[in-house]
Amino acid sequence: MSAIFGAPTAEPQHYDAILLASFGGPEGQEDVIPFLRNVTRGRGIPDERLEEVSHHYRANGGISPINAQNRALKAALEVELAARNINLPVLWGNRNWNPYIPEVLQSAYDAGHRRLLMLTTSAYSCYSSCRQYREDIGMALTETGLDGKLAVDKIRQYFDHPGFVEPFIEGTAASLAQVRADLAAAGTPDAPVHILFATHSIPMRDAEAAGSSEYELREFAEGSAYVAQHLANAEAIMARVDPGQDWSLVYQSRSGAPHVPWLEPDINDAINELAANGTKGVVVVPLGFVSDHMEVLWDLDTEARETSRELGLAFDRAPTPSTHRKFVTGLVDLICERTVENNVAERPAMTKLGPWYDVCNTGCCANFRGEKPAIAEVGRTVGVVSAGSGSRP
Predict the structure, then answer these.
(1) What whole-number distance in Å separates Cα of residue 236 and Cα of residue 172?
(2) What are phi and psi of 332, to 5 degrees?
(3) What is the mean pLDDT of residues 344-349?
(4) Of 143, 316, 327, 374, which has fewest CB within 10 angstroms of its CB?
(5) Mean pLDDT of 161-182
(6) In whole angstroms, how large is the CA radius of gyration of the chain?
(7) Does the predicted model carry a pTM greater than 0.90?
(8) Where exactly are the structural domains of the chain?
């Protein structure tokens, strides 16, 4: 287990319930534009532009798979908790679609719950993966009048927890074997293969601010905790799968104004360059994603696969953790790190960057769009007195 850097580790608490918090997605054609309005609220994007980008959802009947996946994950967590005799109900709330987080918090309070532990479906450190969830809870507590009445804590970012990484090790090995088998069947068993670890691109400014409260303690690869966490995970995976195999980190799902710099290279650009340099097969590992939601189905299974097909490359996409047994048990272990009952004192991590901390320092993963109240932050008491009283090492 690596040393814990940065902000404090929280003291175990007695919790009433678990809050599974996620992004949310439309569940029918009529939901697509209202959903996209929620996602882009405050940016002044007209419906005409939203309609242009809605075809990803409309091509799938207007249904994002993320809600069904969250229902499956919620059910799997409930089974694992029951198997361990942990009496914590699992609530589910979304940032951008039903069930909305403020309504879930109000229902939780009305049901008699007074302290929740939030588990998010985002594993890495950056504004949209961590701070925005903490802000959504902070704002919801304020808007509902539950600030000071309902406490909400958050488990640590779990990018390098074995429960998240081990399924990728299995999936990467299986996909690599599949591509090699396909090339052998085509009569080119020794043809070059490349593994592309794919994650969501974010603006460079957000990437540089990710994990910013740690910068006084250590340096991150490429100046970003978000990038460094993905690189460290990929290295850990390849050390187990095939240390000599070529791989790289690529990005997908870019949006926003063209003049704003985002993390690169784009996965399709990378595939084109690999093909030009003689690569004959690619394995795509959706390292930045917990489940097969729309960015995986469209950007990887549709666009990246089509790019590879047009270039004559063998292609296989590794699965996301989803409801993999190791992922579900790992999430419950993360929950138990924070509970008095069934406490798990060990905090495993598969890279030197972790285990990540429970409570963020003020300003970590800064919001350049305007400061908002956020939970699980040193110096903040929105909804909950800041968890943990430890000091920086």
Answers:
(1) 12
(2) -70, -35
(3) 93
(4) 143
(5) 98
(6) 21
(7) yes
(8) 162-317
